[in-house]
Each structure stands twice: as structure tokens, then as C-alpha cells.
Write a structure and sequence with these properties.
Layout (H helix, E strand, L loop, with lengths): L18 E6 L5 E4 L1 H7 L3 H4 L14 H12 L4 E8 L5 E12 L5 E9 L6 H18 L4 H15 L4 H7 L1
Antiparallel strand pairs: 1-2, 1-5, 3-4, 4-5
Helix pairs in contact: 3-5, 4-5
The structure holds flavin mononucleotide (FMN).
């Protein structure tokens, strides 16, 4: 269960050499976290294992982004995206995340694997304004339809740019 953390304006910026790595089961429960994740998110390993990844979910993140993430993983494809996360003491950190299906030797999907790195700094304001628009849509739509409505808005905006979601996130 996610605990309530009060967000602050304190930002933690990843070093270009830092990679945050986690693995999860099929429901998103953490089964592995590297030292960088523990030190940035500020949790000991004993606390993290078995917790849902929404432990680091920041309230500024539109639900539509996670709708897209789970839809993509549901098709057994890899997801790329910009994610603002919250630490145990309310600080935030932006990452460029890649989440992929994790398979056993027989090819059976057993969970997911995520590697996150420092995003390009100049991209953050563009993503922030896009996510603010998505959150506005979510507020207007109401909780039940919010993720679908804002994901649809994002897809439509990307279509208008004449590109696909993957090409968009990899190019900004
Ligand atoms: C491997 C993996 C990594 C994830 N990493 C994050 C992450 O860094 N931040 C985040 O907010 N959600 C992450 N998620 C998505 C969460 O599981 C969850 O869908 C999201 O935080 C929204 O949670 P909520 O709908 O309970 O609010 C990840 C999911 C998987 C499978």
C-alpha cells in the first residue's frame, strides 16, 4: 500500500553515469532494486522488496502515462517514457525510463525490467507542460475515465505532430 508523502520542490538530478534499475513481477511488485534506486528514492532494500512500483509515483504524473505503460507491456512490447518520481522524503527526480518484459529461459514472461537514466534537461519543460495538460483533462473527466481520456489526448497530439509515441519520446 502506498504511503502518503508530501511533495516538496526539492529536485534530485541523476548523474549521466547513473542508472536506476528495478525488476518486478507481473503485477508491478518490486523483486529487485539496484543501489542507485535505493539511494535516490531513499529506501532500504528490506522495505522495497515486494512493494508496488507506485511507491515512487508522483502526484504530478498523469494517470494516462501509466495507462499507456501497462497497455504497451500488455502487448509484450517495451515502453519508453518520461517519469517524475517522488522519494521517501518528498523530493522529486525525473527519469527517462525503459520498461521491458522479463522472460525466463523458456521465453515465458515472468515480470518486467526497468532501466532509467537522466533525461535531457531541455526536454523536461516540454514534458511538464504536456503532463499538466493531461492532468487538467483528467480532472475534468473524473476518476473513472481519466486515464483513457488523457492517454487519448496524448496519442492525438502525437498524431497531429505526424509521429508515433515511440518516435516522439525518443526524439524530444
Ligand atoms: C518494471 C516497472 C517499473 C515501473 N516504474 C515506475 C516508476 O518508476 N514510477 C512510477 O510512478 N510508476 C512506475 N511503474 C508503474 C506502476 O506500477 C504504477 O502503474 C504507477 O505508479 C501508477 O500507479 P497507481 O495507478 O497505483 O497510482 C512501473 C511499473 C513496472 C512494471
Amino acid at each position: 500500500m502506498k504511503q502518503h508523502i508530501v511533495p516538496t520542490n526539492h529536485e534530485i538530478r541523476l548523474e549521466p553515469t547513473e542508472f536506476i534499475v528495478t525488476k518486478s513481477d507481473l503485477s508491478g511488485r518490486i523483486t529487485y532494486a539496484n543501489r542507485t534506486f535505493m539511494s535516490i528514492a531513499n529506501y532500504p532494500e528490506s522495505f522495497l522488496l515486494g512493494k508496488q512500483h507506485n511507491l515512487v509515483r508522483h502526484p504530478d504524473m498523469p494517470r494516462g502515462v501509466f495507462r499507456l505503460l501497462w497497455e504497451t507491456l500488455g502487448r509484450e512490447q517495451e515502453f519508453f517514457g518520461y517519469i517524475k518520481n517522488i522519494t521517501s522524503d518528498g523530493s522529486y527526480y525525473w527519469v527517462f525510463a525503459n520498461v521491458t518484459p522479463d522472460r525466463d529461459y523458456s521465453g515465458k514472461m515472468v515480470g518486467y525490467f526497468s532501466v532509467r537514466r537522466k533525461p535531457k534537461q531541455e526536454t523536461i519543460p516540454k514534458i511538464e507542460s504536456l503532463y499538466r495538460e493531461m492532468i487538467e483533462i483528467e480532472k475534468r473527466t473524473g476518476p473513472a475515465n481519466a486515464p483513457a481520456a488523457s492517454a487519448q489526448y496524448l496519442n492525438q497530439k502525437i498524431r497531429e505532430m505526424g509521429t508515433s509515441y515511440d518516435r516522439f519520446v525518443l526524439s524530444v
